[in-house]
Automatic annotation (TrEMBL):
Topology class, membrane: Multi-pass membrane protein
Organism from which the protein derives: Pigmentiphaga daeguensis
Source taxonomy: Bacteria, Pseudomonadati, Pseudomonadota, Betaproteobacteria, Burkholderiales
Protein name: ABC transporter permease
Protein location: Cell membrane
UniProt main location, coarse: membrane
Keywords, in A-Z order: Cell membrane, Membrane, Transmembrane, Transmembrane helix, Transport
Length: 263
């Protein structure tokens, strides 16, 4: 990539963000808006520093649920996608139920899971997994089925077993689709964890940053609410950057979508 373009991709968003924060602070101070209604960036930063022990502990809880749900979604979703690709009958039988799991709002499922599962953390993990699971499954299935049919016929002609065809042709062909699903699933894992924590927090079960947002709302500590929201947003951005970096590293040497070209 052109060095100037690489620099611009970093500098321009940072400059725009700083300008927006300055304008936000100026409007809040100029109109004398109460911090209970709309805190300025300075108030949010102060709350982040003062409440760091409380918020960092809650962030760690949310991160553990997010990471567990994400890893489970990648492993289980990938394994089920491979199983579906090996048997069309199994895919036709069970894929509709995966769709039902995906389209059912997690907000509707979370209260039931919290009632049925004695461990609140386990219930939150299941909710986050349900949200993150489907992109891995659907993307990987598409990738496995998109392998060149001429190459599949060639493998069959040379007597390759289904396992050899899967390992040497279909999985490499599916890798870009799988990694795209991973990038989507990373953010959805966090979203699922936060939504489940909101439901649990509304029911009096304290856990994670979402509960701290609810708690701060009840206490009219709006700067703390914004500080917790900022931590969630930054976590989501870091997850996306990490999964994008891994995808780039895996694909950059052989796949068109990640190869750098001279401009």
């Amino acid at each position: 990539m052109n060095p100037k373009l690489r620099t611009a991709r970093i500098v321009l968003p940072v400059v725009m963000g700083v300008l927006c924060l300055l304008a936000w602070e100026a409007i809040v101070r100029g109109l004398r808006i109460s911090p209970h209604i709309l805190p300025g960036p300075a108030d949010i930063g102060r709350a982040l520093v003062e409440d760091w022990p409380l918020l960092s502990a809650a962030l760690w809880v949310t991160l553990k649920i997010t990471a567990s749900a994400f890893v489970s979604a990648v492993l289980v979703g990938g394994a089920i996608a491979i199983l579906f690709s090996l048997s069309k009958w199994i895919e036709l039988t069970f894929f509709p139920y995966a769709v039902i799991m995906q389209v059912t709002p997690v907000v509707a499922i979370a209260p039931l899971l919290i009632i049925w599962v004695d461990n609140v953390q386990a219930a939150l993990l299941i909710c986050a997994w349900l949200v993150a699971f489907f992109p891995i499954l659907s993307n990987t299935i598409v990738g496995l089925n998109s392998a060149d049919h001429n190459l599949r016929d060639l493998f069959r002609l040379y007597g390759a077993t289904p396992g050899q065809t899967l390992r040497r042709l279909r999985i490499p062909s599916a890798m870009p689709y799988f990694l795209a699903g991973v990038r989507i699933s990373g953010g959805l894992s966090l979203i699922g964890a936060v939504v489940a924590e909101f439901v649990a927090g509304a029911g009096g079960q304290g856990s994670g940053l979402a509960y701290r947002i609810l708690e701060a709302g009840y206490q009219l500590k709006t700067p703390r609410m914004f500080a917790a929201l900022l931590m969630i947003s930054c976590t989501g951005v870091l997850i996306f950057l990490a999964t994008s970096w891994v995808s780039q590293r895996i694909l950059r040497r052989w796949h068109e979508s990640a190869m750098e070209r001279e401009s």
